[in-house]
Amino acid sequence: MYKTVLICFAIMVSSISAFSKVIILGGLFPENDLTQKAFIESINAINQMRIETEEFSDTFFKPEVITITDDVFEVSEGVCTLVGQGIAALFGPHDKVSSTHVQSMCDTMDLPNIVARWDSDLVRMKAINFYPHSETLSLIYLYMVTEFKWEKFTILYDSTEGLIRMSNLLQRWDTKGFPVTLRYLGEGPNYRPILKRVKNSYEENIIIDCSYDILEEVLQQSQQVGILSDRHKIIITSLDLQTLDLDPYSHSGANITGIRLLDPEDPDSLSIFNDYLGKMELEDLSKMRTDWALMFDAIQLFSRAFKQLEEAVEGDVKALACDAIDNWEHGASLSNFIRSTEMKGLTGLIKFHTNGFRSDFKLNIVRLTPDGLKTIGNWNSTNSVEWISEPPPVLAEGELDLANQTFTVVISLLAPFNMLTESTTTKTGNDRYEGFAIDIIHELSKILHFNYTFVEQVDKVTGSPNPKTGKWSGMLGKIIDGEADLAITDLTITSDREKVVDFTMPFMHLGISILYKKPGTAAPSLFSFLSPLSGAVWLCLLGALFVTSLLLLIIGRISPAEWNNPYPCIENPVELSNQFTFSNCLWFTIGSIMQQGSEIAPIGVSTRILATAWWFFCMLMTTSYTANLAAFLTIETIVRPIKSAEDLANLNGKIPYGAKRDGATFKFFQNLVHLKGSNYSTYVKMYQYMKDHPEVMTVDNDEGRIRASNEDYAFLMESSMIDYVAQRDCNLTQIGGQLDNKGYGIAMRKNFPYRNKLNTAVLQMQESGILSELKKKWWNEKRGGGSCSSESAGSAVKELTLDNVGGVFLVLVVGVSLTLVMSALEMITDVFSFSRKQKVSFRQELKKELKFLIKCRGNVKPARHARRTSSQSDSTRDTSPPYGFVPTVITTTHPEEP
Ligand code: GLU
Fold first, then answer.
1. Could you tell me whether strands 433-434 and 372-380 are parallel, antiparallel, or unpaired per DSSP bridges?
2. Are 124 and 111 contacting, i.e. CB atoms less than 8 angstroms apart?
3. Is residue 490 in contact with ligand 1, taking CB distance under 6 Å?
């Protein structure tokens, strides 16, 4: 073991002594700065490569680093220590103040000072700076803004010095063109106030020009405030954008473009990184900051330049003393060799222009996509861009993640959708509002994890196009102009609106109906006793009375049993009489229906059947009448001036009616006018009426509700709103059904990339019952809901129509038919038995009988001639009195008779 160490040490010493020349390179870096590591690793790389690569001299470079702070005195001491050791060049520092100081010291000593930091100085500095010059960089920003056709934009900056990068842009847009807004980010760490102002200005094009140290914080806060949404286009000027964790922003939908000097996909850069920079412990090349990479390149270039110096002059580095006026005679030459050397490093081609600044460098223009940064173009400092492809669309629809997005939601105050919170304490921000729509947005934000800010549409105008310019006003105008992302209120989805904005799935379904006063009760009527039966039933009843009386008359005459001996004491009467005269029949039927009866009693089977049928009819009719009359007398009669839209239209304005001006309801009637051959003539008539009477139109639903409540006025309103009003104002109700079917949706600008996600969330809310829960809460429970719900305006008693009592009439008709058959049978049987007994012709007897009947003369008919005495007769038909018994007749001989 001991032996092996010795051998190694011997090899090391021999190798160093073999290339005996050791050159010290001085470095001034702050503590824990990875630039220092890049410096050391680059020197190590050269020491490794010098053997196999001819580009390098045999010199062994030795890093000598002094850690510095902001204290300039300490920095100068560090410089003195380093130069005292004899260094070939001094690398660093990065801080502007100490760097200027170090530069002047190096100038005095003719020592090359190499830095890699952004500098605003426009004139060539003494130090050799590997960082692209600000003047050149400012060209690419101008180029990008022009290429992206930005007409106006806002620059967010953190230092006036940094604004030099924007010099070209500001010159271009200063006097001509569209406005450029400059906004100072402030001292931090809270940049939100200024970011909110950018948001409220509805600026869509933003350039973020700030130092790397605060870039991540600014981006985070921008996202919180909502200026990293899909309608924003952002350019970030920092060359180190790629080293940040951009994942949180890659799904924001914002169009974020940046630039980078170090291309992490370049194969040469990748192999350098893999071979020599492992000790920097970076995740990958993309995490290498520009100044670290530039320091690495600076050493690489220096060693090549040093070789040239060695070849050109004999001589060595010199230890210099700060307190003596001393300089290194080869220093200037070395600086010149550095500026004239060219090489390809981690940051691409390294070449210096005669003006002392880097030239011919290449910058990648990158766009943030869900897969990270993608190069969309390569810009050359000769000011040409080679676009790799069309700037890719930020994200396909439906893929966008709403998480952490902030939306501006425009609302207008309308109960129960959006209302001011009822509270004893003053509320601010979103807490100022509550309601059905407010809750919907809140629930959506919980599902999709987005943030939102409510903006109130003070004039409550939903929006309609200007007839001349076509520009939409109100809430929809705000959506179209990008001043708001979402709009929610009682916003009906209509085809006109769908042409200019997009809607989510409907979160509520409704239709147009009529809001009007509840039907009143009628004053008691003098003839209210007629109400239980309809007019037709009364007429039929009268008809039945007369027809039955007539039938009774006829059947009574046909029926032989109804012909009786008027004088029971006379055995063989000459004439028979019949009790059924017309007046008797009428009296019988009236007496029955009045439930009073009469003296008239039918004897024959047929007449009795008829009487039974009639009594049954009377019983049913009177009980039905009595029952309905009772109901009529206890329940007040409802008066309904209108029952439907047709009634309203037919009243020709006797009851004025209107709708919300320019609302979806009015548009419904308006659109029907253009439907040729439509059979909606009622609605067209209603539209004409409303158009001709502007005074019936209202500014909003509230005005309509108040008018309907206080005046004789019908308001055409959407059923959901009628439902809400009718639960609170017990005077009002919905009249008739719905004229159409539609829904309320959340509006957003056309092709809004989050539409699919919002739709899915609305469906989810529907399926899980959240929407119906919310409706119940805001319609039936909160703010006086349910006050009038139990009242029913439709509990009126209805008169009985023929449909109700038709069966009773049928019973009568059946009874009558049976009677007719029976009476005919009775007559035929009687004539038949008489003709057989008396041995007379049946036909002649029947003829005689029919003749008598047809003549219809009086209620007395001659009795048939009997060939036998009445005592021999087995029939009482001819002699029986109307009461059905036969009195005993005692025949006596007059004493004086012989
Ligand atoms: N919901 C309607 C609209 O979106 C307003 C009310 C109405 O027209 O009945 O315009």
1. unpaired
2. no
3. yes
